[in-house]
Amino acid sequence: MPEATRPLALTMGDPAGIGPEITAGAWRALRHGGEPFAVIGDAQIIHQHDVPVREIETIAQAAGVFDRAVPVLPVTLDIPPRPGQPDSRNAGAITASIARAVELARTGQAAGVVTCPISKIVLKKAGFAYPGHTEYLAALCNMPGHEVMMLACPELRVVPITIHVGLRRALDELDSTRIIAATRTTYAALRRDFGITTPRIAMAGLNPHAGEGGTMGTEEQTIIQPAIDALRADGMDVSGPWPPDTMFTPAARARYDVAMCMYHDQALIPLKTIDMTQGVNATLGLPIIRTSPDHGTAFDIAGRGMADPSSLVAALRMATRMAEHRNRP
Ligand SMILES: NC(=O)c1ccc[n+]([C@@H]2O[C@H](COP(=O)([O-])OP(=O)(O)OC[C@H]3O[C@@H](n4cnc5c(N)ncnc54)[C@H](O)[C@@H]3O)[C@@H](O)[C@H]2O)c1
Ligand SMILES: N[C@H](C(=O)O)[C@H](O)COP(=O)(O)O
């Protein structure tokens, strides 16, 4: 089925966050000729944001109603959500929405999965075993450990090689094998899903001044450079290790397609600072396409009509472009 008519599966996220209102906003932005999606969630919660909704039975029905109403594959909530006051009793419905979306993508019924934000701690309190979507999606695809998180905006792409772990543990987990694996996955995804034939990869250092010749830390010499050497031996265009404080300037960014970063905030601080509204989080390394807005549940503004749907719109558009690249003959 062409991507113009095969819908995306959009998960509900935490219903007490801004997911329902950015979903309504994204539908308003895309309903005339944009990327069709079906929400897997509660129709009434979305309807409260002044958009028509239509419950559907199969995702194949979504494209036929999308210009008139938000198509919804219903998921029953355990308790009515209150904006800004998340409740772990809805964790089962939140994770069921994600699992259903993955199933629709894995069976080819959906072009890809786009997720509304979840609160990690809300799910954790209910016993959810994963630090975030990224790791849960890999488990649902039977590929734990293969997941790579990339955040992208028009100005920058970044990949944190260690993801949802505390900084001390991230340093313990960082080794050449992990850097090589994440970079290979990223390289393959940029070629297959983003149409970049020969990706230019910039490898970040870890320490101040990229270690200053070993005087401010030795990981550049013992871990990062050997990984770069191995990747270059594979034929990849990899530069670095670069001093992390200067590799995100406009001039530096022009010289690479993706920055491989050593830990979560080294990657996400520059990305979200440069562009919080067009940023998209994409999961690489899995058989399905998955994107997400780059922001969280924003409980502080939920239900107040202040949420900007731009990042979700960018995520829906990026997922469709990725599907088009991937399915190109
Ligand atoms: N993809 C995801 O599921 C995802 C991503 C990031 C954070 N989170 C979760 O979100 C929760 C809150 O995290 P946080 O407070 O660090 O980050 P956040 O992105 O939710 O909020 C940070 C700030 O940005 C504002 N903001 C965020 N999105 C906005 C939008 N669309 N329009 C206008 N303002 C917006 C918020 O009001 C807040 O002031 C955490 O529990 C975290 O686990 C989930
Ligand atoms: N690490 C992401 C961020 O800070 O934006 C976010 O938590 C999303 O993670 P998942 O997509 O794995 O939920």
UniProtKB/TrEMBL annotation:
Its EC number is 1.1.1.262. Keywords: Cobalt, Cytoplasm, Magnesium, Metal-binding, NAD, NADP, Oxidoreductase, Pyridoxine biosynthesis, Zinc. GO terms for biological process: pyridoxal phosphate biosynthetic process; pyridoxine biosynthetic process. Substrate binds at H133, T134, K272, N281, R290. Its cofactor is Zn(2+); Mg(2+); Co(2+). A divalent metal cation binds at H164, H209, H264. The keyword Acyltransferase does not apply. GO terms for molecular function: 4-hydroxythreonine-4-phosphate dehydrogenase activity; cobalt ion binding; magnesium ion binding; NAD binding; zinc ion binding. Pfam families: PdxA. Transmembrane segments: none annotated. Binds 1 divalent metal cation per subunit. Can use ions such as Zn(2+), Mg(2+) or Co(2+). GO terms for cellular component: cytoplasm. It is found in: Cytoplasm. The keyword Transmembrane does not apply. It catalyses: 4-(phosphooxy)-L-threonine + NAD(+) = 3-amino-2-oxopropyl phosphate + CO2 + NADH. Pathway: Cofactor biosynthesis; pyridoxine 5'-phosphate biosynthesis; pyridoxine 5'-phosphate from D-erythrose 4-phosphate: step 4/5. Belongs to the PdxA family. PANTHER family: 4-HYDROXYTHREONINE-4-PHOSPHATE DEHYDROGENASE, D-THREONATE 4-PHOSPHATE DEHYDROGENASE. Homodimer. The active site is located at the dimer interface. HAMAP family: PdxA. This is 4-hydroxythreonine-4-phosphate dehydrogenase. The lineage of its organism: Bacteria, Pseudomonadati, Pseudomonadota, Alphaproteobacteria, Acetobacterales.
